[in-house]
Amino acid sequence: MSNATFSLRVAIGGDEAAYDLKEILIGYIRELGYEVEDFGTFNAQPVLYPDIAFEVATAIKEGRFDRAVLVCGTGIGVAISANKVPGIRAAQAHDTYSAAKARTSNNAQIVTLGARVIGPELAKSIVETFLASNFSGGNSELKIAKIDEYESRLKTQ
User: Fold this and answer.
1) In the chain, which end has fewer C-beta atoms inside a 10 angstrom radius, N or C?
2) How far apart are CA 142 and CA 131, in angstroms?
3) CB-neighbour burial class of residue 67 (10 A; exposed 0-12, middle 13-18, buried 19+)
4) pLDDT of 82-100, one tens digit each?
5) Which CA distances in Å does 89 have to 110, 144, 150?
6) Element at 133 (helix H, strand E)
7) Catalytic positions, please?
């Protein structure tokens, strides 16, 4: 049933435009054998996606979850919002290659998807790929360190 080598704790959240996709992904993530917690929205009523993205990204930063999935209409707004939380790397992915590279090369903790851009089956494949991938280090490690260094300098200004 599961490709999980250990049980990742996965946070998920999205806005009303992606409510249906989020619900599908919650079930699929559980089918894969991962723990998942839903940060909302809990119905199709309009919400401000930055609030949900900030909450999910903060939970990742605090170490309460290992990875996260954020969904909105395009995946762009939640990515921008989550990336405002220091230490967070959220990557938009609309194909499995990008999802894998988000993890292996960029050490992203959050993948973002657009419910108006991709269908549920592709979204499942992207999420499965993202959750199964791990940071490979190597040359990418220096690049991630450079990003972290720059972010640290911004905090002291």
Assistant:
1) C
2) 23
3) buried
4) 999 999 999 999 999 999 9
5) 6, 10, 13
6) none
7) 72
Q: Parallel, antiparallel, or unpaired for β 9-14 and 110-114?
A: unpaired
Q: Rounded to two decimals, what is the model's pTM?
A: 0.93
Amino acid at 53: A
Q: How many CB atoms lie within 10 A of CB 103?
A: 23
Query: Bridge-partner residues for 114, per DSSP?
Result: 72
Check the CA dihedral 111-8-64-15 and report its sign. positive
Minimal CA–CA distance to 112: which of 136, 87, 88? 88
In whole angstroms, how far apart are CA 61 and each of 5, 71, 86, 88, 119? 22, 18, 8, 7, 29
| 72 backbone dihedrals φ, ψ, rounded to 5° | -150, -165
**Do residues 137 and 107 lie in contact, with contact meaning Cβ atoms separated by under 8 Å?**
no
